[in-house]
Amino acid sequence: MMSPATTSPVWHPFTQHQIEPLFKKIVQTDGAYLIDEDGRSILDAISSWWVITHQHRHPLISEAIRGALDRFDQVIFAEYTHEPAEELAKGLIRLAPPGLTHVFYSDSGSTAVEVGLKMALGFFHNRGSERSRIVVMEGGYHGDTIGTMSAGARGVFNTAYAPLLFDVDTIPFPGPGREQETIDVLEHFCRDDNVAALLIEPLVLGAGGMKMYAPRLLQEFRRITERHGTLLIADEVMTGWGRTGTLFACEQAKLTPDILCTSKGITGGALPLAATLCKPEIFEAHLSQDRSRMFYHSSSYTANPIACAAGLANLAAWGAEPMDERIHGLAGMQSDRLAKFRDDSRFVDVRQQGTITALDLAVTTTGYLSEVGPLLRAFFRERGVLIRPLGNVIYLMPPYCVTAGDLDGAYEAIDEAADVIGRTWR
Ligand SMILES: *Cc1c(COP(=O)(O)O)cnc(C)c1O
C-alpha cells in the first residue's frame, strides 16, 4: 500500500504521520456510516469526533444549506445583521437553560470557550474589578488554542507549549469517595477575591477520558460560585444537543450557568459554528457610551449565514422530530448492551451518561499514549467500526440514527478486542 503520508501535503490532526498512515479516502457519508473509496461502509460510532448528532446528511439540514446558498455567502457581522443569525439566536435562547439572554457567535468549540473566558474577564474589568483567576476541573478539555489548552489538563498534548500557557487553579475530579474534597477545594479557591470563573464540562469530561460525575455536584458548584460572585462557565461543546440525555447537560442539575458554550452539535454536525450564551449582566457590563468597554472579539466568519441556516434547521429538527424518545431509546439500547460488561474483569469503570457509554480496558498501560490505543483502533477499523479510544478508554458516542444491529456489531467488536488485545497487556 502506498503511504498517503509521503504523497499528500496534508498534515492531519492528532496523527503521528510516521507510524499512522491514513488508510482510505471517504467518498460519502450516509446516516451512521462513512463510505470509503472501496465502497466499504464504516460505522461512525464516535459521530466524526462528536459533531454528528442526528445523522450524517440530515435531509432538513442539507436542504437548508442549499436554500441559504441562493441568498448568502459571508456577511460582515459588525454594522449589519441577518435573519439566519437573528432567528437562530432567538431559538437558542428559547432552548437553553432559562435566564441566558445574549448570543455571541464564533466558529469552533475552542473559540466559544475563549469568548466565554474573555466575557468573564471583561465583565469584571468593566465593573472595576481585576478578578482574573480561572478555576477548572482536573482532566478537563476545552480546546487546542493557547487559551483553552491553558484551561485544560496538562499532559503530553501540551508539554511543548507549556511556556505559553497561563496558570489556572484546578479542583480534583469528583470520583467516587472524593466528592466532598472537590467541593471543599472549590470553596477554598472561590474564597480568594481574585477568582473570576469556574470553567467546567457539565456531567461528562470528554477528551479527558469520558469521566462522569453526578448532577448533584454540578448543583454544589453552582451554589458555591453564586455565593462568592464567581461566574460559572459551562462548556457544553460536547455535552450539548442531547448527548447526555437532555438537550443540555445543565438541565439535569436544573441550573443556569452565567455563560454557556455550544458548538459541535449546533448545526447537527453539518457546518462549523459556535455560540457563547450569557446572562444579561454580562452583556450589560459591556454597555457604555465609552467604546473602550465594548467586547473586543471577532473572527472573520462570525455568524456565517449558511452555518446559521444549518443551525436553524437543526433547531427545526429538534422541534419536529421525536428527539426525547429517540435519545431515550438510544440510551436504553446502549445500557442493555453495556450491562454484560459490568461484571467483566477485562474492564473497569463501566459507565454511561445518556447516549454516551465508556469502559476502560483493564491493562497495565494506561493514559493517552497507552500502547493499546492504536492497536484497538486498528482492530475496530478491520471490523468496519470507527472507534478511537482515548488510550485504554473505549467509548461510544454514536449519532442518534444508529440501530440496535449497528450497536450489536460495535459491542461485539469491543468484546473481541478485549480478548485479542487486552490479553497481551494485562
Ligand atoms: C471538542 C471540544 C472543544 C473544542 O472544540 P473545537 O471545535 O474542536 O475547537 C471544547 N470543549 C469541549 C468540551 C470539547 O469536547
Write out key terms for the chains shown:
alpha/beta, Aspartate Aminotransferase, domain 1, Aspartate Aminotransferase, domain 2, seven-stranded mixed beta sheet, globular, binds pyridoxal-5'-phosphate
Secondary-structure map with pairings?
Elements: H1 4-7, E1 26-30, E2 33-36, E3 41-44, H2 47-50, H3 59-69, H4 83-95, E4 102-106, H5 109-126, E5 133-137, H6 146-151, E6 169-171, H7 179-190, E7 195-200, E8 204-205, E9 211-212, H8 215-227, E10 231-235, E11 259-262, E12 274-278, H9 280-284, H10 305-320, H11 323-338, E13 347-353, E14 356-361, H12 372-382, E15 385-386, E16 393-396, H13 404-420
Parallel strand pairs: 3-15, 5-6, 5-7, 7-10, 10-11
Antiparallel strand pairs: 1-2, 2-3, 4-12, 8-9, 11-12, 13-14, 14-16
Helix pairs in contact: 3-10, 4-10, 7-8, 11-13
The structure holds pyridoxal-5'-phosphate.
What does this structure look like?
With 426 residues, this protein is α/β, with parallel strands linked by helices. The protein has 2 domains: 155 residues, Aspartate Aminotransferase, domain 1; 261 residues, Type I PLP-dependent aspartate aminotransferase-like (Major domain) (Aspartate Aminotransferase, domain 2, 3-Layer(aba) Sandwich). 34% of the residues lie in helices and 16% in strands. It has 13 helices and 16 strands. The strands form 4 sheets. The chain has a 7-stranded mixed sheet, with helices on both faces. Helix 3 packs antiparallel against helix 10 and helix 7 packs parallel to helix 8. The N terminus is likely disordered. The site of pyridoxal-5'-phosphate (PLP) has 14 residues, from helix 5.
